[in-house]
């Protein structure tokens, strides 16, 4: 396969890059482009150049796989400068996504045209670095400081239409190659714009800087702030100085732990939906989906499946519950309309695809049914007994249980090979994590259906073996137990929460329990005790028995004042727990965080050892996508690696 091919359309040379799967800019691509400029400059018949890519997308950025290696010439900034300095003007013809170094190369071109569906972006901060080939220096010259800060510090790609408005591209076209050639030909007869690096740059207004800085600090890791700083530096210095400053920051960050952690998550996310064990196994179709239960979880699952284009039948126990369930689903789409994410017509179309019933017989033709009823074994078994009677033998039947043993739920179910656990996380239409829990009877194509459903819902699937809490809730239980152990050793609750916020979590373990309610885990422990298990009394038990269930009862680990969610240290909680607390201990917050992350990783090691999780990356994905583990720390297994 030839990396770069050239064809002539009259005086226009069309250079096509073909480096599957995403035209990442490898060393060979840099070298090829660098030499191509000289070759076409030397060709007297060529007057302009169109750069276009084969496959699904324009250049998707530097090849992230090369990040761990020493950079080799020609470096990307040199390639961009060389294209910009070419005697013949280059036109970037963009489809798919021009990202990172891909968009930097496009900015080295004299013009940029794109199809409507294309996106341009500088997502480097999502990989823990900043643009390293003039993204923070050319973008503000091309589109102004505000557009540059927006594009660079949040790392979100911009659709072609918006990019045209701010001047990042020159035209939106329909026939990409043909129109790009015509654009190049027309440009030859018009006044040539200045190369981007020569364009003037307005200073960054102080007020804008302060606002942008506050937002960048909120990101929690250093890359967004360094990117902002690099743009500001570019507004105060010449191009060459700004390029040197940017390069220094890029190389510094590229070797950082944050960048290594973000690359780890990047590749783990791309490996997750394609387990090798399912290669070549056809999933079953799932166009008509039943959801049993219209509460928060059921409504979220129904909305997520409807959003992915499935027809939904929502089953509840009586007409009132059906109405409430349907209104819970409608409320989710109303929210999307309010946030400007969904047009009114789209809302109506989505709601029209969700019908409610109390009659299980309506599920006779369902391809997939997902149960999301009360977390009690008897209730769940009754649901599956009914489903076993009414559903097709090949219909996939799934439980959303988060703690119960799926084997116990499926006991006695006819065609047990069609049963699987699909553990969604609330709110199910937002949280990306989906724990997929097969039983020993689950057929491979049913497991493949679980992964296909995750892809259809744009969720992050992680296969889990059967144990209490599968992967995520089992680690959560250990995390909470270790945090309580620190409290009994005299470490202040507020210090532990502050330590975990400082590490990058949005909330510490105690404030999170107060928000979610201490009684949920309490009921699980009580259920286990009732089943004869020896479950030692926890500090949380003491608080719940004293009526302290968290914010909803005005107090849990902390006290709360009506209408104010601020957590206040609680003398009452201290009094209730005093008998269990021996002494006082002042631990530095980083030590507290390291201790608790190590505890998560130790539970993760046991989970791997027992075969509950297949790979450490899966455990990191569960924690990052389901439990708020800071992405730029990579997850407990990565953070605790040797
Ligand atoms: N480098 C290497 N491999 C990459 C890659 C990249 N940049 N992007 C994707 N892949 C692989 C990915 O691992 C997967 O491999 C396959 O391509 C398909 O990916 C100097 C320093 C482009 C929007 O951050 O956002 O430029 O698993 O499943 O859903 O300033 O990939 O098949 O073996 O995601 O169609 C900046 C990251 C780099 C873009 C396509 N660029 N990629 O999405 O496919 S830093 C990025 C994406 C930089 C310069 C700086 C997406 C996509 P496999 P996929 P997709």
Automatic annotation (TrEMBL):
Pfam families: 3HCDH, 3HCDH_N, ECH_1. Residues 469-560 form the 3-hydroxyacyl-CoA dehydrogenase C-terminal domain. Residues 289-464 form the 3-hydroxyacyl-CoA dehydrogenase NAD binding domain. It is found in: Peroxisome. One of its GO terms (molecular function) is enoyl-CoA hydratase activity. GO terms for biological process: fatty acid beta-oxidation. Keywords: Fatty acid metabolism, Isomerase, Lipid degradation, Lipid metabolism, Lyase, Multifunctional enzyme, NAD, Oxidoreductase, Peroxisome. Pathway: Lipid metabolism; fatty acid beta-oxidation. It catalyses: a (3S)-3-hydroxyacyl-CoA + NAD(+) = a 3-oxoacyl-CoA + NADH + H(+). The keyword Oxidoreductase applies. Monomer. PANTHER family: 3-HYDROXYACYL-COA DEHYROGENASE, PEROXISOMAL BIFUNCTIONAL ENZYME. This is 3-hydroxyacyl-CoA dehydrogenase. It comes from Alloyangia mangrovi.
